[in-house]
Amino acid sequence: MIYTEEIFSCLDNAETINKMLLNSVTYNNYKAQSVKMNFDTEVQQLKREFLKIKERYDEVQRFGRYHPDYTEVMMETRRRKKLYDMHPDVVQFRQYETQLQTLLDEIITIVAHAISNEVKVERGNPFFVDHSCSSNCGCS
């Protein structure tokens, strides 16, 4: 690729957008909640317990219903996952994560549509849909 002044200008503008994102309330909420969650001993304990049972789950999945502990491991995995997912700090983190992903999706859509309305944009959030085509591809 040959770098021209236009390309350098685009890269500078992208860096400006990046700095704006890193200074946004949305990103700061996400980052603060991530740190809070990582230092919360209760959350970390729930995560470790879930990951431990997940290892057993992966082993059971190799054999499917024929594994003698299939039902027990499946139920315990769901229970541990729910305990982790329903912790207030994890719930708050997921909400901030979704807000950040939505912001990023909106920015990507704006940039893509500035080029052409025919540009297809993959989005990280399947619920962020303002268009559907006949093939249900999720393009915008």
UniProtKB/TrEMBL annotation:
Pfam families assigned: Com_YlbF (PF06133)
Superkingdom of the organism of origin? Bacteria
Which SUPFAM superfamilies does the record cross-reference, listed alphabetically? YheA/YmcA-like
Q: Which InterPro entries match?
A: Bact_com_dev_regulator, Com_YlbF, YheA/YmcA-like_dom_sf
Q: What is this protein called?
A: YlbF family regulator
Protein species of origin:
Macrococcus armenti
